[in-house]
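Minutes, project check-in
Item: structure for the 330-residue chain
Input as provided by the requester:
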Amino acid sequence: MNKTFCVISFDFEHRFLPPVYISVFIVGLLANGWGMMSLLQKWRKLKIINVFLLNLGLADILYLLTLPFLMVYYVMGSKWIFGDTFCKITRFCFNLNLYGSIGFLTCISVYRYLAIVHPVRVMGRLTVTHSVAISIMVWLLVSIQCLPDMFFIKTFGNTTESCYDTTHQTYVEDYLKYSFGWTLTGFCLPLLITLGCYGHIAVVLWTRKRIDKVQKQRGLKLLLILILLFSVCYIPHHLLKNLNLWSRVLHKQRICYEWFNGVYIARQISRGLVCLNSVLNPLVYLHGNEDIPAQLRQLLQRARHIFSRPPPTNSGNVLMTEITDLNQGV
């Protein structure tokens, strides 16, 4: 077949990913830092759902701290200078953030489902201790899922060493099998649980008259946030990751198709979109913590007051006095 079909524009990731990582690093660090500080300030009043929010923020910050190294990597033309071990740690932190976020969002969905659909059964039975134990289990399960990824080759080359987000072409068939199973257990199963919980919640909110209007609005807002997270960040990432791996397997078998380049570019865009979960996750803070919107309004009012304050009128007089004194030799 025509070999031009197999020409792939690898330069796209070097132009697209660095500005995305810079933006996500700045906005995500500020948003998650602020959200976690708000939760920690009210530690004694910590609710069950806030434990999951706190762990969600920890997963985001852990990943955000690795972004400067990835920015250097792509700016230098995919040349990794930090060693093989740190490459694996960086990729591990990404996966830990991704599947940790999915896990804790699933826990929040289940908790909201129990609180709205089965409030009598749950009232007084679920405690903060239970949520802490569940959070530890989520971290352990996610770590076990991500651990095999560290045994695949991540760096390769003599002069220009790459840091693969998956693995080298030599082991792409094995990685495709692992990635497919990982997608089923780490993404598809939590997605089905989340959809089931919020599907039932939506029915209950609209059919039960005793639920007040405010609670209905809060439940539907959280549903929209989760739909946004899954549709923008998670679904494209998993779909295009496995499709790109499949195209690499075919390419290794000397089977070339014109759509390979389009899949590769779409895959890089999905990598930029998936890291946006660290920016979008704080929206769950805004929904779950009633004080944060009030704090945001206060910050905006202070900023507006500072920027709208007129400059001092005597600054020019002071300057003229200083010039006069200098001329007089004072």
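Outcome recorded: The first strand starts at residue 155 and ends at 156.
No further action items on this chain.
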